[in-house]
Specification:
Layout lengths: L1 H24 L14 H14 L5 E7 L1 H4 L4 H12 L3 E7 L5 H11 L6 E6 L7 H6 L10 H8 L7 H4 L2 H8 L5 H12 L1 H4 L4 H13 L26 E4 L3 H6 L1 E4 L2 H4 L4 E6 L4 E6 L4 E4 L12 E5 L3 E2 L14 E2 L2 E2 L30 H13 L9 H13 L9 H14 L4 E5 L4 H4 L6 H12 L5 E5 L17 H16 L5
Parallel strand pairs: 1-2, 1-3, 3-13, 13-14
Antiparallel strand pairs: 4-9, 5-8, 5-12, 6-7, 6-9, 10-11
Helix pairs in contact: 4-20, 5-17, 9-10
């Protein structure tokens, strides 16, 4: 019996040791090769560990929130503007991820103290309050009368908030554990105690990336992270009719992979010509698949830019299946994820690069943009179930305009967040962020919208500041209801810098 107890104790010590060593330490020492806007929770955790390991040599601004936050500000551009306009030499960091609601920003507050921020910035928008969930759960329901405990329980479901189990299990238990059933509570307890369970669904993606980038074809991915293409490449790696690049040793040894769709071929082959001004090579694309191409060795004799030109293009709105999308951009071939790189990028979890979809609205008038907006974001739900949340948001904004404002659940957590910073005399800037003028029209003139603004304004006092800029950006600066294009982000940078810079003593 004694031997069994000793064996059990040794086993538990070994398990806890391995759990701590690998899942809490080693995995964050490996390079993070998950690109921006993917693998959200691992990127968030990796970034937190990175910031915590840095010695503090300057004042720190930390941006918290959801994708609304990290689509709105560029950390390096903001640092540059603050230095130029206010002589403020600061570090700007993100601790934001997609779907992060006020409840989980509140649960994050205890994590901020080791980082010693001098200012915390929190941009919010309608999507962050998750008010559309009421109408999804109760088609005839109302946000001014729904039972709050039901919405709390809904917010704890894995589908709605995987971060509660993956990132904040213990904090979630302490805050809303009394609202959990026994099965849910047991899962959160196990997740709190063992990192291998807590991180089991997120850590492996980075390991897969590391393996694929070194030994694979890099043809299965969500977000392009190769070299910059002068003619532009979209977020998924699709080129237009032309794309240019420089030859590399890796290309010479392993060739390049390009995805060819049946819609480019249109029943016949398509010519792809490579040229650097002196050497030309024509390739016949015949099969709709990922195709390996070996460039002529003459291209590698000198480091001259190569331009690839397709015979024709295809359009996603005329396609079907996984290639169907409601936009009008001319499409070419898809590049492998790490195209043009000798070594894959790492540590780019919060670095946004411009893509072709960021520029499609440049010069577009309001009438054309409005038609495009409804077509691209709200039509074809039966073919594109992924736009369901946008349809639900539109429905929510149109319905809530006839309701009375009621500061429940996530609004209460915004109040708690404000109180946290006020009690610590730590500067905090809450921003009612810009919204697309088209979706803003659906509810801006309502009593609900006016009262919700008054509520947010009422939180301002002491070290807590509120800033309402909901109509500060024209529609062409938005990719949807609330996310900025890269161009929109650049346009807003100086506006954010002006307000943030004035919060620091002169």
């Amino acid at each position: 019996m004694k031997k069994r107890i000793i064996f059990l104790i040794c086993f538990l010590v070994f398990l806890v040791g391995i759990d701590f060593l690998f899942f809490r330490k080693i995995q964050f020492l490996l390079p993070n090769e998950s690109p921006w806007n993917t693998n959200h929770f691992f990127n968030f955790l990796y970034e937190y560990e990175r910031i915590r390991s840095l010695p503090k040599t300057k004042k720190r601004i930390i941006i918290v929130g959801s994708s609304v936050a990290y689509y709105s500000l560029d950390a390096k551009a903001l640092e540059k503007s603050l230095l130029e306009k206010f002589s403020l030499d600061v570090d700007v960091f993100y601790l934001a991820y997609a779907g992060n609601s006020p409840l989980y920003v509140y649960l994050l507050l205890g994590w901020l103290e080791p980082l010693a921020p001098d200012l915390v910035v929190y941009p919010v928008n309608f999507i962050d309050y998750r008010l559309h969930r009421t109408y999804v759960l109760f088609p005839e329901g109302r946000n001014d009368s729904v039972e709050e405990t039901v919405m709390v329980q809904d917010a704890l479901t894995f589908t709605e908030a995987p971060q509660s189990l993956w990132v904040f299990p213990w904090e979630t238990i302490r805050e809303v554990g009394s609202a959990m059933d026994m099965e849910t509570l047991s899962r959160y307890l196990v997740s709190s105690g063992f990192s291998f369970y807590r991180y089991k669904d997120i850590y492996e993606q980075n390991l897969q990336n590391l393996f694929q980038h070194r030994f694979g074809r890099n043809t299965s991915y969500h977000s392009y992270m190769g070299v910059s293409i002068p003619e532009g490449v979209n977020g998924l790696g699709w080129t237009g009719k032309q794309f240019s690049f420089y030859p590399t040793k890796k290309m010479e040894e392993k060739g390049i992979w390009l995805e060819v769709t049946p819609f480019l071929l249109s029943g016949s082959s398509c010519q792809l010509e490579f040229s650097n001004g002196e050497t030309k090579q024509v390739v016949e694309l015949r099969e709709p698949r990922w195709t390996k191409i070996h460039l002529d060795l003459a291209f590698f004799r000198e480091n001259k830019q190569i331009t690839a030109t397709l015979e024709r293009v295809w359009f996603a709105h005329e396609a079907s299946g996984a290639y169907l999308d409601y936009h009008w951009d001319p499409m070419g071939v898809r590049l492998e994820q790490t195209f043009g790189l000798e070594e894959p990028k790492s540590g780019v979890q919060y670095i946004r690069e411009p893509r072709t979809e960021d520029f499609r609205y440049n010069g577009m008038d309001d009438e054309t943009y409005t038609r495009y907006f409804y077509y691209r974001l709200l039509e074809g739900l039966e073919k594109r179930p992924g736009i369901g949340y946008l349809v639900a948001l539109k429905n929510a904004k149109e319905r809530i305009r006839s309701e009375k404002f009621r500061p429940i659940f996530h609004f209460r957590y915004i109040q708690k967040i404000a109180e946290h910073f006020r009690n610590r005399n730590l500067p905090f800037l809450l921003i009612n962020n810009p919204e697309n003028p088209i979706s803003l029209r659906w509810y801006e003139g309502s009593d609900w919208y006016k009262d919700h603004l008054q509520y947010l304004q009422s939180l301002e006092s002491g070290s807590v500041h509120f800033w309402d800029i909901h109509n500060a950006l024209p529609m062409q600066g938005f990719s949807d209801f609330h996310h900025f294009t890269y161009v929109g982000m650049e346009q807003m940078n100086s506006i954010y810098a002006e307000r943030i810079g004035n919060l620091f003593p002169k």
